[in-house]
Amino acid sequence: MSSVLPLDSLPFPAGERAGARGAPLAASTPLVQATDLAKTFDVSAPWLNRVLERKPRQLLHAVDGVSFAIAKGRTLALVGESGCGKSTVARLLVGLYAPTRGSFAFDGQDAHAAFRSAQGRQLRRRIQMIFQDPYASLNPRWKVQDIVAEPLKEHGLVTGAAALRERVGELLSSVGLAAQDAARYPHQFSGGQRQRISIARALATHPDFLVCDEPTSALDVSVQAQVLNLMKDLQRRLGLTYLFISHNLAVVRHVSDEVGVMYLGRLVELADRQQLFAQPRHPYTRMLLDAIPKMHDTGRARTPVQGEVPNPLNPPSGCAFHPRCPHADARCRAERPVLQEIRGVRVACHAVEEGRV
Amino acid sequence: MAPLLQVRDLVVEFPTRRGTLRALDRISFEIAPGEILGVVGESGAGKSLTGAAIIGLLEPPGRIASGEVLLEGERIDKLPFERLRHIRGRKIGAIFQDPLTSLNPLYTIGRQLTETIQAHLPVDRTEARRRAIALLEETGIPAAAQRIDHYPHQFSGGMRQRVVIALALAAEPRLVVADEPTTALDVSIQAQIIQLLKRICREHGAAVMLITHDMGVIAETCDRVAVMYAGRLAEVGPVHEVIHQPAHPYTTGLMASIPDMESERERLAQIDGAMPRLNAIPPGCAYNPRCPRAFGRCTRERPELLAAGATRAACWLHDASAQVPA
Question: Each residue of B58-69: pLDDT tens digit?
Fold first, then answer.
């Protein structure tokens, strides 16, 4: 497997991506704008059980009012522990789920209205997704040629077997694979190479926006470095916009421009990368940062975080983090804090607002 | 101090239809009493297999082809199944990655703990239960006296891993083999479990072989670290030296490819290529096709572990008796 190609050997036809090429555009109007996005799942017992056993309806608020914007060519990372709703946000943005509440505007238009209409196809072409598990997201019975060509055929972008073969070869070489690899099956590749195949597939339709759900967490560190470098190169070359979902703060710190920290379905802090890592405000962000084992701090004694993520079916009252928070008081237990701008950072915390932290 | 565990020239092979695969190739290391040895490497490097070979849980057709494993000076790699079963649990405890699969879902955790205690120690049921509750309290399970009668599914992932740690330590073993004990857990829980493992093993005087792919966990927890590559040991040494002055080019590359929280880098260093498959390990040093400092000898002769400053590395760059190209 060779390393990433030099910038000038970019296989995209000239002119096709005019405007998106070169340096990322100025952060003027956001490409992606989520406003009060929410997704509720009905996890109630079946109807008969509810009637006979008098069980109530049970709703799981997986994402509960999340708002953010991503400017063109930038990367927003969402971090949080399992069950915080970050993957649900990803699925909302690619249209795999319809939101229960709120809206998602892509390039100025209401995306979820468009997904249902005739323009949905056009929009899906511009929004693509890279999944976590490169073993599960590639069809083992298909050759790489068919996997990467599927979106091209589906969107009618390339017709004719020869043209398809050529385009797939270009896409594969843009992610550091060989054009001849198209004739092989996914099981003949290593994990890192498979993730390159899924990136090639996602790039096939010339998307503007890539939703990456834990793209490297199934990979070994040296392979992770290859894939992260590739993703950064592609972003610079193609002017891509990323939503990067990860639980690994060190990876997030490396790839993102802005970071949103999620806890139990809500954003608790949304800040510029440098600001967030240099000066985390929300107690949960501080806790997460403190919990990462540090490579260059051998044998350091840490005060480990107390407690676990509460059951999302029965979230705590007020601020969902209050049972684990060292700064919680009566107001935190009663009143849910909203995400608001406090001293240049958007944070949802009463203690920060009151200046107690 | 005599080493607690000695592994000498351990070779594990898997016979297949297309020939024998050598999954572990002459691994040698030692663990001192009470010491925490980290074993790190990428998937397929042989970390878990080393652990499985030591506790005698190799999946057939895998087998120890040569070499020996000594626990407190006694060979345990050739013991009959029943004798080994007695040592497992009593002298060597094991902690696996997924806490749900290492607990029996049909029994309460109390039953699993007391059964383990009674199988290895001469105590009656009431005493075993008392010890089980004490262990659960030690591992930080709140209301242990009530929780002991719960089933594994009633615990969260972090709590289950605490139960598994209690189970591994139930018979006061001298060595705990922990294979990726925190990989399935979230970061905040991972920090709690690592602290717990470290504290409780120190209190019980147990040595730990901690197998993980997470260098951060190794850095915080271990005394020494062994780096594995393609079924071989690449480097062994004190954890601080291996991280800050690695002697093997693979260790250097591995360390540089990890995104960290301190430095400001636009690109991560990457090791091009991938670890070779077991049926295609190159002659000489297994790392030579990817190594930026490889020279002629590396493609012909396999290096043994050589002294390299504070650590030992399997790399010809550290062969004091030969001329090394600059």
Answer: 888 899 999 999
Element (H, E) at A59: strand A59-71
- Residue B72 CB burial class (10 angstroms; 0-12, 13-18, ≥19): middle
Contact across the interface for B274 and A247, Cβ inside 8 Å: no
Strands B175-179 and B92-95, sheet pairing = parallel
Taking one residue from A and the other from B, the number of pairs with CB-CB distance under 8 angstroms is 135
**Residue in chain A nearest B258 by alpha carbon:** A221
How do residues A104-126 score in pLDDT, each as one tens digit? 999 988 988 888 888 888 899 99
Domain extents in chain B: 5-244, 284-326
A87–B contact, CB cutoff 8 A: no
Instruction: Count Cβ atoms within 10 A of the Cβ of residue A156 and give its class: 0-12 exposed, 13-18 middle, 19 or more buried.
Output: exposed
Picking from A82, A225, A295, the nearest residue to B243 by CB comes out as A295
Alpha-carbon torsion (A97, A103, A107, A110), positive or negative: positive
CA dist B162 and B147 (Å) reads 12
The neighbouring-strand residues paired with A272 are A258
Q: Which two tokens stand for residue B40?
A: 């790190």
**Chain B contact for A42, CB < 8 A?**
no
Domain count, chain A: 1
* Cross-strand pairs, B118: none
Reading across the β-sheet that carries A101-106, which strands appear in turn?
A: A59-71, A30-42, A101-106, A109-110
pLDDT on residue A298:
55
pLDDT digits (tens, 9 = 90+) for B75-88: 998 888 888 888 88
CA–CA separation, B77 and B64 (whole Å) = 8
Position A215 in a domain: yes
A100 within domain boundaries: yes
Q: What is the pTM of this model?
A: 0.83
- Peptide bond just before B259 cis, omega within 30 deg: no
> So what's the ipTM on this one?
0.79
β-bridge partners, B22 = B13
From residue B122, alpha-carbon distances to A20, B113, B127, B148, B257 in Å are 74, 14, 10, 21, 51
Which residues span the domain enclosing A71?
A: 7-19+28-264
- DSSP code string of B15-79: EETTEEEEEEEEEEEEE-TT-EEEEE--TTSSHHHHHHHHTT-PPTT-EEEEEEEEETTEE-TT-
Angle formed at CA A50 by CA A46 and CA A51, multiple of 5 degrees: 120
Name residue, tokens 């030969």.
B322
The verdict on residue A317 lying in a domain is no
List the single best residue of B43, B47, B185, B186 to mutate versus A (max A Cβ within 10 A).
Answer: B186
List the 63-82 stretch of A: residues with Cβ below 8 A of B.
Answer: 81-82
> What topology is assigned to B5-244 in CATH?
Rossmann fold (3.40.50)
Quick check: is A42 in a domain?
Answer: yes
B96 to chain A, minimum CA–CA distance in Å?
18
Residue of B nearest to A293 (CA): B216
Q: How far is CA A97 from CA A51, A58, A111, in A?
A: 29, 19, 12
